[in-house]
Amino acid sequence: MSRNSWSRWCMNLPGSDCAGRVQLRDGRLHIPGEVYERVLLNCPSLALLARDGRWQLLPLFGGAGGLLIKIRNARGDRVVEAQEFFRSQGFEQGHEPVEFDLNLEPEGAAFQLVMQSS
């Protein structure tokens, strides 16, 4: 997906900052099928970055490498094995599940992972 295509797509997202919600469980990022199709546009992989005290999720297209997004069930839910990234950020396996909003950052072609308050 080109930068221009990404910009056009971003403008078509709903008005709120939150484009979707994902959950971290046991070092794995769980992505509902609807969020995967609508927000991540069926991309095959993603990158997770820790930048300026924030976490970012970057969809990767065109064989760019990264963490594979695997099919989890028949509903189309997805999972990303990201134990190494989250362990380096202080989240050990066995940690309570945590919900994150995916907030669009169009200038960086990324989503910021924003932890939901309890």
List the helices and strands and how they pair.
Elements: H1 3-11, E1 18-25, E2 28-31, H2 33-38, E3 45-51, E4 54-60, E5 67-68, E6 70-71, E7 78-81, H3 83-88, E8 98-105, E9 110-115
Antiparallel strand pairs: 1-2, 1-8, 2-7, 3-4, 3-5, 4-9, 6-7, 8-9
Q: Low-confidence segments, ≥5 residues, pLDDT <50? A: none
The CA-CA distance between the termini, in Å, is 36 Å
State the helicity in percent bands.
Answer: 10-25%
Principal-axes shape call: globular
**Quick one: how many beta strands?**
9
| Major β-sheet annotation | 9 strands, antiparallel
Strand content: 35-45%
Give the overall pLDDT as a whole number: 85
User: What is the number of independent domains?
Assistant: 1
What's the helix-strand series? HEEHEEEEEHEE
Q: What's the CATH C level?
A: Mainly Beta
CATH architecture: Beta Barrel
Question: With helices defined by DSSP (H or I, 4 residues minimum), what is the helix count?
Answer: 3
Query: What spatial order of strands do you see in the largest sheet?
Result: 5-3-4-9-8-1-2-7-6
Structural class, by secondary structure, is: alpha+beta
Task: Return Rg in Å.
Answer: 14 Å
CATH topology heading: At1g16640 B3 domain
